[in-house]
Amino acid sequence: MVGRTPEYLGKKIQSYEVKMAMLSLLVLCLSILGFSAWASVSEWGKAGLNNNGPHGLSEILYAYSSATGNNGSAFAGLTANTPWYNTTLGFAMLIGRFLMIVPIMALAGSFGLKKAAPPSAGTFPVSGFTFVLLLIGTVLLVGALNFLPVLALSPIVEHFLTAQGKLF
């Protein structure tokens, strides 16, 4: 990409648009992982667990992932109807619903103000198979880099321990 300015739908993508896109991804990641980490180390968070070990971490992670994604469900083993979980899950839901949309709206406003440039020989088509592969690869890579470490500590470890006959 050296020497070329990337475009999407004929509009140039500059550093501001990249910053807003990354900020919206960081808000999602920090809400899920931050609240999960806080609940994993605090006495209030651990008091709501009925299962210890990696399954307990999976329950906490799922609760905050679901709240941030505006679903609001939790595993049955997590006692989520406590003041601690009601408050933090509510904040996670607010962050996922409103704080994440602010950079996306700024991104939309920035793209809306730009003039569309006519396609040239160097324009990368967004309707082709290559674009779809690059988009899917980027989504999977960013998702793996954000969440694979905690997934390796919870459901993946739980699978291997269960295969050895160790239950919690």
Structure description:
- The model has no long low-confidence stretch (mean pLDDT 90).
- The chain is elongated and about 60 Å long.
- Strands 1-2 form a two-stranded antiparallel sheet.
- Strand 1 (7-8) and strand 2 form a beta hairpin.
- The chain has seven helices and two strands; from the N terminus they run E-E-H-H-H-H-H-H-H.
- The chain is mainly alpha-helical and 168 residues long.
- It has one domain.
- Helix content is 67%, strand content 2%.
- Helix 1 crosses helix 3 (53-68) and helix 3 (53-68) crosses helix 4.
Which descriptors would you attach to this protein?
single chain; 168 residues; mainly alpha; two-stranded antiparallel ribbon; 2 strands; elongated
Strand order of the largest sheet: 1-2
Structural class: mainly alpha
Put simply, the count of helices is 7
Termini Cα gap: 50 Å
The radius of gyration computed from the alpha-carbon positions, rounded to a whole number of angstroms, is: 20 Å
Proportion of residues in extended strands? under 5%
Characterize the biggest β-sheet.
2 strands, antiparallel
Mean pLDDT comes to: 90
- Count the beta strands: 2
Looking at how many chains there are and whether they match, the oligomeric state comes to single chain
- The tally of structural domains comes to 1
State the share of residues found in helices, binned by percent: 55-70%
**Which of globular, elongated, flat, extended, rod-shaped describes the shape?**
elongated
The parts where pLDDT drops under 50 for at least 5 residues are none
Element order: H for helix, E for strand: EEHHHHHHH
